[in-house]
Amino acid sequence: MTIRALAAGLAPRQAEADPPSLAIRLWRRSLPNPVGLAAGFDKDAEVPDAMLGFGFGFVEVGTITPLAQPGNPKPRVFRLAEDRAVINRLGFNSAGLAAASRRLAQRGDRGGIVGANIGKNRDTHDDIGDYVEGVRVLAPLVDYLAVNVSSPNTPGLRDLQRKSAVTRLIARLIEARAAAMPRDPPPLLLKIAPDLTAEERADLAEAALASGVDGLIVANTTLARPANLISRFAHEPGGLSGAPLFAPSTALLAEMYRLTSGKLPIIGVGGIASGADAYRKIRAGASLVQLYTALIYEGPGLVPRIKRELAALLARDGFTSITAAVGADAHLPSTTPHGL
Ligand SMILES: Cc1cc2nc3c(=O)[nH]c(=O)nc-3n(C[C@H](O)[C@H](O)[C@H](O)COP(=O)(O)O)c2cc1C
Questions:
Q1: Arithmetic mean of pLDDT, 131-153
Q2: Best mutation site among 145, 221, 293 for ligand 1 pocket (most ligand atoms within 8 Å of CB)
Q3: Please, are residues 267 and 298 in contact by the beta-carbon 8 Å criterion?
Q4: Does residue 220 have its Cβ closer than 6 Å to ligand 1?
Q5: What is the CB-side half-sphere exposure of residue 139 using CA atoms within 13 A?
Q6: Contact, 28 vs 316, CB < 8 A?
Q7: Can you say whether the dihedral through the CA atoms of 275, 281, 282, 284 is positive or negative?
Q8: What is the pTM of this model?
Q9: Which candidate, 270, 311, 265, 303, places its Cα nearest to that of 286?
Q10: Contact of 282 with 26, CB cutoff 8 Å
Q11: Which of 24, 234, 278, 286 shows the greatest Cβ crowding within 10 Å of its Cβ?
């Protein structure tokens, strides 16, 4: 219903301009602020401009699969209101690449940073071929591509995070991107799961650095169920998002930043509901942040609030830009700790 209302033009628009300290330049693109809408809200690229109007600095549409598919049977999304969390097992319900690319092409060059998150069909016989198709069709239409190998709701998908699989997958996608967009190609980002062992994390960091991928998105929803969840839906199968994901996803972000020596820009996502949360992710190593679940509970006023709070925190600590604060809490082996 929300998507329909937004598509019909019933959308709030944030009037105030963003404070200059929130602007950031990354991947040869200029963003007015680092707070983005995470994948899963606008799966079929129906309302990216309405969501930019909420005040987001960038919007990620998708996950888009090559062919249309219905996803899992309903019910498949559960509000854990007492826990400020959601469990979903949507399973990539998607209207498919043709529909999404038509909308993005019609949108044309309206300004505002829009990325597309790509996935594979549940019943495909060619996993990598599905991602290649996404890159081929969408590379000319978006500002970045997010390769989703981390949704918990498509059987086998997360296996693509293994070192050898990542290496093969990214090589094919970089090739497809070059063929589709020889000039100024959009950055290719890998979105990873929070449920990785220490060995898998180290392997993945190494593979990501060697592969030529342009950045990481950390993290998708978790299969873990923290013991302190109180909602009656806590044990529904699916991916958990929202407040309980904040600590584990921020710890993984810090670890990936350290393991990649700060060389790969990271989008931090998971449980952000305030400017302080966004700031924690940035100090842990995120260049940009995204959110979804908190928007469900807080509504559109959340976005300007986070930006106001974030600008105040940067000013309090003497940072004149987001970039200066990225990784301020990180202890990279080769650098002096911040402030010394
Ligand atoms: C209902 C729902 C659907 C989602 N669908 C997708 C998706 O299609 N692709 C994807 O990469 N992530 C998807 N996500 C994960 C979010 O993009 C994000 O990584 C995660 O929810 C953590 O952020 P949050 O705690 O701010 O929601 C979905 C999340 C929710 C709650």
A1: 95
A2: 221
A3: no
A4: yes
A5: 23
A6: no
A7: positive
A8: 0.96
A9: 265
A10: no
A11: 286
